[in-house]
Description:
The chain is an alpha/beta fold. The chain has helices spanning 15-27, 52-63, 84-94, 106-111, 118-124, 140-146, 166-174, 185-194, and strands at 2-8, 32-37, 69-72, 99-105, 127-132, 154-158.
Amino acid sequence: MRIGIFGGTFDPPHLGHLILAMEACDQLKLDRLLWMLTPAPPHKRSHVITPVEIRLEMLKLAVAHDRCFEISTLEMERPAPQYAVDTIHELHNHFPNAILIYLMGGDSLRDLPDWHQPKELVDFADEIGVMHRPGDSIEAEELERRLPGLTKKLVFVDAPLLEISSSQIRSRFFQNKAVKYYLTPEVYAYILSKHLYEGKKVK
């Protein structure tokens, strides 16, 4: 079984996330894609983040219609900080016979040597799937020098260039700008019903 791990705060989950997840499932021939909801990412400690229970409800609405998608609450069940290396180690215990593919963007790949225990993360992952957008450049030799064994585990997902981000969507809600078609109808309706992102400046 091939299982992809797609981590994030998903505040909120949007169409860009869904398109990237769909492409990963298709191009990497995944049997399952785990949406790994991160309660309090270490690199966003200074940011105001929507409570994880609300983000979980939005994520359930966003991914409900695709059988490849599954939500994992594994990181919600651990105390902060939640590190990717610990997550993938736990997943190996849960799925000992599976091939685990940790998914990330090109910017995250460039920053990977500065992550918590990056060499162990590379060792634990069977493959590292990189969402490769048009125009992205990867300094493979430098990454390999800093993290030996990384390049042989890289697999690339050709992803469309989508200028959609959760912070942009939060900002548009705050500014009362049109945002309806950046989200699934269910997530958009949920945000309106809960009055989310109103009066909150974006960091």
